[in-house]
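Please check both lines for our workbook:

___
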Amino acid sequence: MDRNTNSRIERAAEQVPKEARQEWLGMLETLAEQIQRHQQTSQQMVQEMINTYMQLLNTPGSYLSGQAEQQQQTLQQTTQQWMEQAQEQQQAFQQQAQEQQQSFQQMTQEVLSSYAQLLNIPLSYAQEGLRSAQFPIRGYDELTVEEISGRLGGLSADELRMVREYEERNKRRETVLEQLDRRIRSGSS
């Protein structure tokens, strides 16, 4: 790609609709809030584990000896549950972030593709569209040589030249080109 095309694509990317950018930013804010809640939950779980451990350490020896094994199992089970919950939340956040990223990439690709298609339309097609709106013989491309010959009589020299240029660029029918040349030379309508 040349620098011109690169700059066009960059400008197209900058013109991603505001609604799409706002939607993407909203999704990112939601994700950030969820991550923040997850961090708060994790901090609470860690604090609860520390508190439980401190209670265990502060328990008198006689009580500790009888209950130690049960408390250790409870602590391990609680810790295991918290770890599983944290892993599930992390996986859910990762999946959601990946889905949002894919959606945004797909949307951006579609927008860029649309702009690229617009940029790749040759100027000659646009000019041709303008010419066809002003072309002196309506439905020219669908007409036969005989039908075209019958419609040349009422055209000015400029209109005859326009028809000749078009015929030469497109179908290049010798009989039509010869008739047009004769009429242009004679200056008759």
